[in-house]
Amino acid sequence: LFLLFFTTHEELQTLDVDDAFFSTPEDIAARALKPQGGVNFIRTFKKQEEDQAVNLPPNLAELVQNATYVQSPDNLVWQYFYNLKGSAEYPFPGGVFQWARYRINGTGLNETEKIFSESLNKHENTLTLATLRIFSNGLGQPHFHFNANEMGYVISGCGQVGVILSGVTANFNIGIGDVIFFPVGTQHYIKSVCDEDLFLILAYSTGNQLETLRMNDYFHGTADHILAQLFFKEQAEFKKFPRAAK
């Protein structure tokens, strides 16, 4: 079972090998492929009613006698493959992230991480991927991303999502199999509401380093005297908000 993300908001267009073959005139295919038997051999191919990219033939064992692939060199494989489950964990209050992403400063990355990171960055329309685990009753605090749309899929657990719009917050519940989407710049939060952890896989529409601003960062980044004017509170009261340790 695969979970796939594609970098398009248009209707996905796909051309399979068999579709291309059967869309090609018989004489053209025969001249291009040059099989024994020529065009008569080409005419022995029959288009199946079902899409063979999705439905495997019931007699596959009779059709295929040997299916082997030579393993590619590691430095080639790592451009396309990354062991996300085995990667470093990045904890935050309430949960933990694991990332498959580009990082501007690659210091501390192992060779696999460096090759994958650079591969993401040098190709257009790539994705940053992550797994997000929010502990039971934990919170992924309000935040937004400057440079990416975000899409997520719930693997396990259940939670509540809030999308903070101008003057109103939209709340909804999420469970296994649900998909969530946050357009770029949309402030949102996720909290776990089950006894078990909430676990999601997330995709961000950027191959650059993801830029995120969290509520505690921009609140603490605003001068106390400005906050006093905004909220009609004495300036000293804003000392009650603890600052995260660096």
From TrEMBL:
Gene3D superfamilies: Jelly Rolls. One of its GO terms (cellular component) is plasma membrane. Residues 107-239 form the Cupin type-1 domain. InterPro entries: Cupin_1, Dynactin-associated, RmlC-like_jellyroll, RmlC_Cupin_sf. It comes from the Eukaryota. This is GL25 protein. It comes from Chionis minor (Black-faced sheathbill).
